[in-house]
């Protein structure tokens, strides 16, 4: 779609305001023309010059003055003065109403364009955000929209100015068609000269758009990456890079402004030349009307002088349209949805899970990529059970988690919910019944209450506080300066990582989801924070269908089933004990977290030498001992730091501490047994 078609399409969305703007412009032009016609007779009457000087003039002057035939000189002067004043008042009134209407129209169109752009941003798939720079989005949603609004207002003003010029041309034709043809030819020559600068204006407008986009991108990079910039002491390099982009934007804007500034003096000089040539031609054309020559030429030149500024405005409007045409094209491409991926919604509302979720030979490749990220995933997630996904980075864990809420659709195969394809469900109802807690929790720069109750309009303070207590977040929320009303800053910067996670868990608890997705929710936390968050997660997962992506394998040992992924394929499925006994990929991952290559439930894999067997056995038992000891120390730390208030919680922690101590004692006994087993194995070999 061309830039002109885009502008016309938006103008047609507000036909009443467009018509009113043009009508007011037309009325203003009519009043402008008649007030100009009457100025010369009024001046002659004021100076006491005889009116017969106009009797041999053009018909339009004769008809205008015939209204005052038989009037006395003083009455004619007063009447003409009153009419001119009235017409000028009406002209300015209609001009004001036209400006008011066109300004209001511009604001409405700006609002509509931004709302349409926001609708597009909220509708398109996540892949669009993965491929588009954040600075580009800000630039298009902000400055480009306002540039397009300027083009639309310039288009309306252009129409008003063209109407005004045509009315003046009609009056000029009535005065002298010969002079008007000459003037039109001269004005056409001036327009051709302006076209050269209009073509340059389009190029400069494109440079301004590119420079503004790059400047916005760099500004956002610096603001979002300021911690990294300061940590590596790279402020000077970023300053120099920013300085370069600012200079580029400044130069592009300067060149564009200089090009626009040339148009006005060219039009003014051209207008003076046209007037001079019109005077010479008028002396020749009206040479037979010597008596009325001065009055006719004066009227003609006065109207021509009044028309020339509108001709200059037309050229200025054309220049503005040309300069902003690149912004129109950018915004048109931005708002359109036919060139973007938009997920087709299903019709069946999701009302609850009855059996479970099944992945059937699911394959997936990201849009515009040929490589399959998932290669034939078969997976069963029973209702009310916890399924854990483990594997190295790039194995496809997060991709599976993204497919479940339909952030993406499978390239092949299907995800079935209670035997029905996920794509047949209304994805909004699916997501409303899901809770997602990820490693990087996003919090709005708003109150604690707003962040916990986000998306729920009917949540009360009682509901919010109840969810906060269940998420182990109530205590630190109570210690905040304004409690639930405390503003958290951008992305929750005023909270620690563990506190942000507990806010996210409270948000999920408040939504009471039937399906839960936990994407490495504790991987970046310290021991105490992990303990508190894990307790909140355990509360959250009760009687819910849960999909857990885990980096720390210690957090998924109690999962109903653990799915091991490698390069987009399922390589192992089983519970913690079963997978350790297999001695396969899970056992390797389990062992690698504690500086060993292999670990098994029985604590041995033959490598052919005593040191290898002994180190493998010690690695496994070392992990078991440290896990129990960390649990014991974590419980004692919570009590010592005053995080536990109620006697019931203290009693529960004491029991857990006793259990951990007993487990640690058992590990020591097993360690002695395994040392004996290793020595026997080596002696036999």
UniProtKB/TrEMBL annotation:
<feature type="transmembrane region" description="Helical">
    <location>
        <begin position="266"/>
        <end position="286"/>
    </location>
</feature>
<dbReference type="GO" id="GO:0005524">
    <property type="term" value="F:ATP binding"/>
</dbReference>
<feature type="transmembrane region" description="Helical">
    <location>
        <begin position="179"/>
        <end position="198"/>
    </location>
</feature>
<dbReference type="InterPro" id="IPR003439">
    <property type="entry name" value="ABC_transporter-like_ATP-bd"/>
</dbReference>
<keyword id="KW-0812">Transmembrane</keyword>
<feature type="domain" description="ABC transporter">
    <location>
        <begin position="357"/>
        <end position="592"/>
    </location>
</feature>
<dbReference type="InterPro" id="IPR036640">
    <property type="entry name" value="ABC1_TM_sf"/>
</dbReference>
<dbReference type="InterPro" id="IPR039421">
    <property type="entry name" value="Type_1_exporter"/>
</dbReference>
<dbReference type="Pfam" id="PF00664">
    <property type="entry name" value="ABC_membrane"/>
</dbReference>
<dbReference type="InterPro" id="IPR017871">
    <property type="entry name" value="ABC_transporter-like_CS"/>
</dbReference>
<dbReference type="GO" id="GO:0016887">
    <property type="term" value="F:ATP hydrolysis activity"/>
</dbReference>
<keyword id="KW-0472">Membrane</keyword>
<feature type="transmembrane region" description="Helical">
    <location>
        <begin position="12"/>
        <end position="31"/>
    </location>
</feature>
<feature type="transmembrane region" description="Helical">
    <location>
        <begin position="292"/>
        <end position="311"/>
    </location>
</feature>
<dbReference type="Pfam" id="PF00005">
    <property type="entry name" value="ABC_tran"/>
</dbReference>
<dbReference type="InterPro" id="IPR011527">
    <property type="entry name" value="ABC1_TM_dom"/>
</dbReference>
<feature type="transmembrane region" description="Helical">
    <location>
        <begin position="151"/>
        <end position="173"/>
    </location>
</feature>
<keyword id="KW-0547">Nucleotide-binding</keyword>
<keyword id="KW-0067">ATP-binding</keyword>
<feature type="domain" description="ABC transmembrane type-1">
    <location>
        <begin position="19"/>
        <end position="323"/>
    </location>
</feature>
<dbReference type="InterPro" id="IPR003593">
    <property type="entry name" value="AAA+_ATPase"/>
</dbReference>
<dbReference type="InterPro" id="IPR027417">
    <property type="entry name" value="P-loop_NTPase"/>
</dbReference>
<dbReference type="GO" id="GO:0015421">
    <property type="term" value="F:ABC-type oligopeptide transporter activity"/>
</dbReference>
<feature type="transmembrane region" description="Helical">
    <location>
        <begin position="75"/>
        <end position="93"/>
    </location>
</feature>
<keyword id="KW-1133">Transmembrane helix</keyword>
<protein>
    <submittedName>
        <fullName>ABC transporter ATP-binding protein</fullName>
    </submittedName>
</protein>
<dbReference type="GO" id="GO:0005886">
    <property type="term" value="C:plasma membrane"/>
</dbReference>
């Amino acid at each position: 779609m061309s830039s002109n078609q885009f502008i016309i399409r938006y103008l047609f969305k507000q036909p009443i305001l467009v018509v009113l703007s043009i009508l007011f412009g037309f009325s203003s032009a009519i009043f402008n023309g008649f007030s100009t016609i009457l100025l010369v007779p009024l001046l002659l009457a004021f100076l006491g010059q005889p009116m017969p000087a106009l009797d041999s003039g053009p018909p339009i002057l004769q008809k205008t003055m015939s209204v005052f035939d038989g009037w006395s000189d003083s009455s004619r002067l007063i009447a003409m003065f009153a009419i001119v004043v009235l017409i000028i008042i009406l002209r300015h009134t209609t001009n004001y109403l036209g400006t008011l209407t066109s300004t209001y129209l511009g604001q409405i169109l700006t609002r509509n364009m931004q709302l349409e752009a926001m609708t597009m941003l909220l509708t398109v798939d996540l892949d669009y955000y993965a491929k588009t720079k954040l600075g580009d989005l800000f630039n298009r949603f902000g400055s480009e929209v306002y540039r397009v609004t300027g083009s639309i207002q310039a288009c309306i003003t252009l129409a008003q100015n063209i109407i005004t010029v045509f009315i003046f041309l009609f009056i000029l034709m009535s005065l002298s068609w010969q002079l008007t043809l000459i003037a039109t030819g001269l004005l056409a020559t001036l327009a051709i000269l302006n076209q050269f600068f209009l073509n340059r204006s389009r190029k400069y407008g494109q440079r301004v758009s590119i420079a503004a986009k790059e400047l916005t991108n760099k500004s956002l990079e610096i603001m979002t990456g300021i911690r990294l910039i300061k940590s590596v002491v790279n402020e000077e390099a970023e300053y120099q890079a920013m300085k370069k982009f600012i200079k580029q934007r400044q130069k592009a804007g300067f060149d564009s402004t200089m090009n626009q500034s040339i148009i006005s003096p060219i039009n003014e000089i051209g207008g003076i030349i046209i007037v001079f040539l019109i005077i010479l031609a008028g002396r020749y054309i009206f040479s037979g009307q010597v008596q009325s020559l001065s009055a006719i030429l004066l009227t003609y030149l006065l109207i021509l002088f009044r028309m020339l500024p509108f001709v200059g405005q037309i050229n200025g409007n054309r220049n503005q349209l040309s300069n902003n045409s690149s912004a129109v094209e950018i915004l048109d491409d931005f708002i359109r949805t036919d060139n973007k991926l938009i997920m087709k919604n299903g019709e069946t509302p999701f009302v609850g899970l009855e059996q479970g979720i099944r992945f059937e030979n699911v394959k997936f490749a990201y849009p515009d990529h040929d490589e399959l990220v998932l290669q034939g995933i078969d997976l069963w997630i029973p209702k009310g059970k916890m399924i854990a996904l483990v594997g190295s980075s790039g194995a496809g864990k997060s991709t599976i988690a993204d497919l479940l809420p339909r952030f993406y659709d499978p390239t092949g195969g299907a995800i079935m919910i209670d035997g029905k394809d996920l794509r047949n469900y209304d994805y909004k109802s699916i997501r409303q019944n899901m809770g997602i807690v990820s490693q990087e929790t996003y919090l709005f720069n708003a109150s604690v209450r707003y962040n916990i109750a986000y998306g729920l309009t009917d949540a009360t303070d009682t509901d919010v506080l109840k969810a906060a207590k269940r998420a182990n977040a109530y205590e630190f929320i109570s210690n905040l300066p304004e409690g639930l009303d405390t503003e958290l800053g951008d992305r929750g910067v005023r909270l620690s990582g563990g506190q942000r996670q507990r806010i996210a868990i409270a948000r999920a608890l408040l939504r009471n989801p039937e399906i839960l997705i936990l994407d490495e929710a504790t991987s970046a936390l310290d021991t105490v924070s992990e303990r508190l968050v894990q307790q909140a997660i355990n509360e959250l997962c009760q009687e819910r269908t849960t999909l857990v992506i885990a980096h720390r394998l210690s957090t998924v040992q109690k999962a109903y089933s653990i799915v091991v992924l490698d390069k987009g394929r399922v390589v192992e499925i089983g519970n913690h004990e079963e997978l350790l006994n297999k001695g396969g990929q899970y056992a390797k991952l389990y062992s690698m977290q504690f500086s060993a290559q292999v670990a098994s439930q029985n604590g041995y894999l033959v490598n052919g030498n005593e040191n290898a067997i002994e180190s493998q056995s010690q690695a496994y038992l070392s992990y078991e001992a440290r896990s129990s000891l960390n649990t014991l120390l974590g419980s004692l730390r919570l009590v010592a730091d005053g995080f536990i208030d109620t006697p019931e919680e203290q009693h529960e922690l004491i029991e857990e501490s006793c259990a951990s101590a007993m487990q640690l004692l058992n590990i020591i006994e097993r360690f002695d047994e395994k040392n004996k087993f290793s020595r026997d194995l080596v002696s036999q070999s």
